[in-house]
Amino acid sequence: MISIEDAISAVKNNTSPLFEKTTKVVEKANGYILSEDVLSPINMPPFRQSAMDGYALYLHDDLAYNLIDEVKAGDEHQPVLQLGEAVRIFTGAAVPNTANAVMMQEKVKVNGSYIEIEHQLNLEHNIRPLGEQVKAGAIALKKGTKLTPAGIGYLTSLGITEVSVFRKPNIAIVTTGNELIEPGQPLTHGKIYESNSKMLQSVLYSLKYYDVSLHKVEDDYSKTIDLLKSVVSKNDLVLITGGISVGDYDYVGKALIEIEVEQVFYKVKQKPGKPLFFGKKGNTSIFALPGNPAAALSCFYAYVYIALQKMMNREPLELQRVQALSTSKFIKRGDRPQFLKAIFNNGKVELLEGQNSSMLQTFALSNALVFVPAEVSEVRLGDELETILLPV
Description:
Blueprint (H helix, E strand, L loop, with lengths): L3 H10 L7 E5 L12 E2 L9 E2 L3 E4 L6 E8 L13 E5 L11 E4 L3 E4 L2 E4 L9 E2 L10 E3 L7 H9 L4 E5 L4 E6 L3 E2 L10 E2 L2 H11 L5 E6 L3 H14 L2 E5 L10 H7 L3 E5 L10 E5 L2 E6 L3 H19 L9 E6 L3 E2 L6 E8 L2 E4 L9 H5 L2 E5 L5 E2 L4 E6 L3
Parallel strand pairs: 5-6, 13-16, 13-17, 14-15, 17-20, 21-24
Antiparallel strand pairs: 1-12, 2-11, 3-10, 4-6, 4-7, 5-9, 8-9, 18-19, 19-20, 21-27, 22-26, 23-24, 23-25, 25-27
Helix pairs in contact: 1-6, 4-5
Keywords: Magnesium, Metal-binding, Molybdenum, Molybdenum cofactor biosynthesis, Transferase
GO cellular component, one term: cytosol
Pfam families: MoCF_biosynth, MoeA_C, MoeA_N
């Protein structure tokens, strides 16, 4: 059995970035990391653009101008202004080449075909210059940038339809156990509805990992070997829930040995999630998580999240940790460090009831995990607690 700190280090040291490139259409590239610099094919804006609704002017020494035309956003025509002339213009519209300033409409008096501005303007006032945001041929986004909705919008505004990104991992989730049945089936005596696969799939989806396959195997040694051999050969990451303890029908550990998975560690001094396995075969990472749902999810946040970050070459590797003041009391039993489900809000943290590793109801309300070290046996009101913020 190893410590939490050693387990975290082992995951970091035994997981490698994928660094394989693939091409994605821009609208489906959210959450991916750019594998190459993206160069802008155009100037943005692609023309001199009005920053507001108002009047485009060909400046002269007087405050009065002759109003000759109108330019709306999207208009292609280019009125030609003479000295002392103006055109009505709207936000985002192309400023005529002969105009050299824009006055906002609130500072203009209109009298038929004449206008009067409140004061003189500097050249190019309220005009967004050609290529102000990015120039054609310049780097729009650098290699290594994580694409966000704003990034998707930005690249789309440049007319870019595809980008080169680092491939995300293929992930298999394997659930084991004769007692598990699918929701929608009659719940007969001795059976429970299987929830771990949907729970893990959901957290992966929330982190924008969508290449996820679900598999189920009975408590049968040969079937467990066959399935694990298949998913390990086809995926970058395999998550197994259940069957990793030492019961008579826990076959996962034996099957992993049979298919020659290298054990990095097995069992971590922690609660929940003591029977946690992490191993490697080739470039595939394998986590055998506890079967109890809350324990499985706690281990995901503490260890699997790190492996995913490392595969995508992202920083930071671990979830954010902050110090928060406890609004609850808690007595810790035993000598193992513990992850407690909690609600963090504005520098304070509430420890929730129902910390049993089989209970998800409390986890469903949580937005944080509190880490209680081995040497701490009691949490008191006002204690400063190390709090792990869960992704939303």
